[in-house]
Amino acid sequence: MADAKVIPFDDDRSRARRRPARTEEPSDAGPGAGAAAVRALPGAREVPEEASVGSGAAGAPEGPAAAPEGGGEGAGAGRGGWERRLAGGLAFLRRRVTGEYEVDEFGYDAELTDQVLMSLLRPLYEKYFRVEVKGVENIPEKGGALIVANHSGTVPLDGLMMQVAVHDHHPAGRHLRLLAADLVFVLPVVNELARKAGHTLACAEDAERLLRAGEVVGVMPEGFKGIGKPFSERYKLQRFGRGGFVSTALRAGVPIVPCSIVGAEEIYPMIGNAKTLARLLGLPYVPVTPTFPWLGPLGMLPLPTKWTIQFGEPIPTDAYPPEAAEDPMLMFNLTDQVREQIQHTLYKLLVQRRSVFF
Question: Are 355 and 306 in contact (CB under 8 A)?
Answer without folding.
Answer: yes
